[in-house]
Write the structure tokens for this entry.
Amino acid sequence: MKSLREVIGEFAASSGGGFLERGDNRISVADLLGGTALGQRREQLRDRCVLLSTREQLGSALALVELDGLARRIVLCTPDLTPAQLADVAATADADSIIVDSARELSDLPKIDQYLVSPRLEPSAPPSRRDAATEWILLTSGTTATPKLVAHTFQSLAGSLAAGSLKSSADARIVWSTFYDIRRYGGLQIYLRAVLTGSPLVLSSAGEAANDFFARAAAAGVTHISGTPSHWRRALMSGAAGQLAPQYVRLSGEVADQPLLDSLRAAFPQARIAHAFASTEAGVAFDVDDGLAGFPAEFLGRTTAGVELKIEDGTLRIRSGRNASRYVGAAPAGLRADDGFVDTGDIVELVAGRYHFRGRRGGVINVGGLKVFPEEVESVLNADSRVRMSLVRARRSPITGAVVVADVVLSDPAQTDAGDRIKQELLTACRSSLAAHKVPVVLRIVPALELTAAGKLVRPLA
Amino acid sequence: MTRDKIIAVLQDVATSQGRKLAPLVDDLRLTECGLDSLSFAIVVANLEDSLGVDPFNSAEWVDFPVTLGDFVKLYDRAVA
């Protein structure tokens, strides 16, 4: 397998038009191939395990091209990591270096060398490639405060972008953009599509207002744009989506419901609108572009582009070359079953020839593309001695797909009179120890919760 | 009145989320009012509890509200 840089050299450099844009910064991919954003210290990163932890997406976009085939392992850190989480990730990944886009104090990472990536390129000969493939580590939210580390390679990430389709799309005038952060799976797919086809990619900037981003995307002539259903709802609500006239609108990362697909059809009558199923662990599985929610039952039992689907115990399972290989720092069996299938945990139901998504096994709640494990929120509520038990579950939301709600049983039913005060105190406790999307939107005090025969909480489907 | 209820919920949510609201006039764009997506999701969930309707979850609804005026109208129609 060639490195990212080598493939770009073959497919993209010939088309000449590719660039990465962020704010006022525009970096052509051809310039990147003849230069370095990592400076003269780049060679020190050979065979190293590197945390890529830039504030802006652009720094990561540039560094990836240089690190694949050079570093042993690249860990794509999302900008929302706390210093403590970053330290945990560094320890689990066995990291020895970190790349940042502005020098910073790293007191939690004492044994790690800091490198700077700059959008001002220096001329440089390309580095020679190491023999073994570079591991790309993506982070995904886990049951604890520490993210899981999901191991991919350039091959598993770019496997869905077959060489043939790359060549043909390089001929068309495509300009990509994405609402995703390119350090998350969905965004990384768009980044790879763009740089591998020599298509321009317009990146959003940290803290940029939706309307400013749309204006910039429209000015850059964006034709293809992707995001989660929540991103798209936000875009439609901004009233600025009309500045764009995309040919291709892509949704992934959450369930695309029929009202949203209809709204997008009304807003972009000329566009091909596709919703894709993809996850960090399972990779891209399939695209649906008939404008209907769910996916046709025929998708099961056939192999398309090397992807096999099956349903077992009610959840969708996927086996393909795009699957991640393992969780770093966990037992190998954790990610793939013995038969090689990845269990997505997504419960599907067959209705009139189509499978529809009905929530997550284990009750994982998806709030605008971010996972919430109910148990994590319950543990915060249950830590209060006035709480006997609690149940955290999903409630449908037209804005973020789902929100978190909680039912709480008090230890002393007589305290129910003080319910309002206790509620406020519980919510304050949640806000101080949980990310905002995990804090219950509605918290009710209830007399009892239903238990199964085995004495477990009955967890309703979302 | 629906409008008053909506304004009250917007203010409550802004306070609890530590966000500063822009002056709430009808032609204020929702994306410029100072709330993020999560805050809006909280507003819609709270309104469903207090007004008993979720106008987003109906068969005929297609257009996303863009301004505060649109948002109020959507609820006015659903409550009526």
